[in-house]
Amino acid sequence: MSVTIHESWSKQLQMEFEQPYFKEVRRFVKAEYDHHICYPPGREIFAAFDHCPFDEIKVVIIGQDPYHGPNQANGLCFSVRDGIPHPPSLINIFKELETDTGVPYPKSGNLERWADQGVLLLNATLTVRAHQAGSHQKKGWETFTDAVIRKISDEKEGVVFLLWGGFAKKKAALIDQAKHHILTSGHPSPLSANRGFWFGNRHFSKANELLLLNGKEEVAW
Question: Could you name the active-site residues (predicted)?
């Protein structure tokens, strides 16, 4: 696995790419992709970074790992390719978006349109074996993505972090809350949303309010 990532990120993360743990990640991922069907396609493993250059980050949304069904994952958390049915969590994200902002429920579940506006859609684990949820967890990806979150916290100011669910909320420990904004809620999965922990969080409008307060352009969700 060669690391091809947007130039702005390459500069920021060069030290990570040289760490022993990351060399193990590369070895593991290459073996997995050589011997199994894995997602997303190799060229899209770092798509979240390619669509959202380091200098343009305004919002960070943290997911856990990619969708593991055919043709779903495209390297952005919660996002699926154009024309692919929306998974349950994404359905609930779009329902809250519509209620919160009045944006009509989107036809496409491809969130590249968010990423291209400075929304980093970061999964903690960047790859997965087909039909085996969580199969690439605890192989080193989390060390890398934790370093990404710390780098954003250290080098940027006024970033809005949207932490959905218990897993994402733990990442708050990596973020300097004196410099950044953190909004938390339950996860958009049906289990959490149907228990009242997701709907009504108004994170999309709140994020835009915080961006405006910091003199940044709103996200056209």
Answer: 65
